[in-house]
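Reviewer 2 asked us to include a model.

Predict the structure of this chain.
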Amino acid sequence: MFSPTDWIRLFMSALFILPIVTVIRESGYYLAVTLLKGENKNLIIGSGPTLFKIPTIEVRRYFFMFSWMEYDGVKPSNRIWHGFIYAAPILTTAIFAFVANSLVLEGILPANIFWSTFIFYCFYYMLFDVIPVYLPDGQPTNGRAIFDLMWHGERSDYKKQRLEREAKEEEQQHEGSEEERSSTEAQEETMENRDRDDQERGDHTTPETEEADETKRSYTEAQEETKENRDRDEKERGDHTDPES
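Predicted model (structure tokens):
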């Protein structure tokens, strides 16, 4: 059950503590990229329309929702330094969390709702970053990015591009095989249809030939029969004529 204190904690977390912790986390990227002379660096805090902007830092209207760091390249560019960039936000939130927690334990900072919530979210972001997984949108956590960099020897964004390229090439090969198989099946079907048509034409031609032969044979027999009847009639007329003569 939410008490009045919990409601205060909720709004304080959403409007103040989360934005502060988010800026602390993103500042780790910013400091690391600055130390490595990153090109075109830009720290974006929040989302939505731009509220105000200073060189390399942009604050947007919905400052408590999202933040991220943009940069093109660093010098030197190798696995170790890229790993340092990925580890920087984990280190910054961890340092702030442990320092704040120590100061509260020593009584230097008051053990009130603000500092307890602040320390909680610092540890939350730190643990969230350490877990080596891919998020639902396909982006890796910093822990996963470090793992890919050290284990596979490549950055996660390069690995993602490579996997997408390989999947696309495999899909194209599959489509080519499908087209070739379809073409072969079409050729086989054409050959079968041609053979069937030849057979049907042969079947249609044979009865006609046999019928023609039968007609021809019937016509010859009729002629022979007519000839025989004519010869018989002539013979009978000859027989009838002889007695009269």
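The two ends are 149 Å apart (CA to CA). The longest strand covers residues 57-70. We have added this to the supplementary material.
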